[in-house]
Amino acid sequence: MRHNQLKQKIKKGETVLGLFMNCAYPAFIEICGHAGFDFAVIDMEHGPLHPLAAEDLCRAADCTGIAPIVRVRKNDGPQIQRALDIGSAGVQVPQIESKFDAETAVKSAKYSPLGTRGLSFATRAGLYTAAGTNITDKLNDESLVVIHVEGKGGIENLAEIVTVPQVDVIFLGPYDLSQSIGIPGQVRDPRVIDMMQEAVQTIRSAGKAAGTFAENPEIAQQWIDAGVQYVALGVDVAVFLRACQSLVKAVDRF
Question: What is the Cα Rg of the chain in Å?
């Protein structure tokens, strides 16, 4: 069965770079792999993607060695199970506000004895039964669990959240954090940055990897320098927009 290189890189303390994917066209995620990204977050929370499209994106990701991570819409057992059953390298779970929320996410992502994930061998994750029936421990080891702490409540409860076993990455969502303290969208405000920097130290002190979103390479580098390992650098549609804008502006048509 597939070995999760992304999880191993994170365990070794390496910095990994990815981006969010809203486009259903499989070539886009292949291209991201060829470009050198370590992972792509298939966004089923804010993006319009259907599970069948997400599964095809996972297949395309495997072609170029980029790790497909599925962000589900909410902390929901069936959604988390499906995100992993389609053969992703891991799952990202939004809006974690408490230790209980984090434990619930882990239980949904892991098979017994670590959790309560429903068991079927006839899935892409199980190679459609070709992997046999002794796969639950292997899949438990290989699956990456990323939880989003993106609200004031999650920050206040972070010291407890970081104690939950089997959580690999705690992803700090700057936009939702800014909204939770009354300054929506102002992600470069010192209040947001200070909150996130303190959170990164709490996460790292607990032996876990911190993650976040960055709109451009300069911001990404700042967070990497602050100790963030798992950096999502933009969203595919926004990257395409900026590339198109730069092309249009580069041509003198008048």
Answer: 18
Residue 164 to residues 98, 106, 205, 208, Cα–Cα distance (Å): 10, 8, 14, 10
Read off the pTM: 0.95
Element (H, E) at 121: none
The two structure tokens encoding residue 185: 């969208």
List of the chain residues with pLDDT < 70? 1
- Residues annotated catalytic, as ranges: 46
pLDDT at position 1, please? 67
Ranges assigned E (strand) in the chain: 16-21, 39-43, 67-71, 90-93, 144-149, 169-172, 209-214, 230-235
Kindly report, residue by residue over 121-179, the tens digit of the pLDDT.
999 999 999 999 999 999 999 999 999 999 999 999 999 999 999 999 999 999 999 99
CB 232 within 8 A of CB 243: no
* pLDDT for residue 253: 84
In a 10 Å sphere around its CB, with 0-12 CB exposed, 13-18 middle and 19+ buried, how is residue 244 labelled?
A: exposed
Per-residue burial over 20-30, b if 16 or more Cβ lie within 10 Å, else e, is bbbbbebebbb
Task: Report phi then psi at 110, rounded to 5.
Answer: -120, 145
Tell me which DSSP letter residue 184 carries: T
CB 59 within 8 A of CB 26: yes
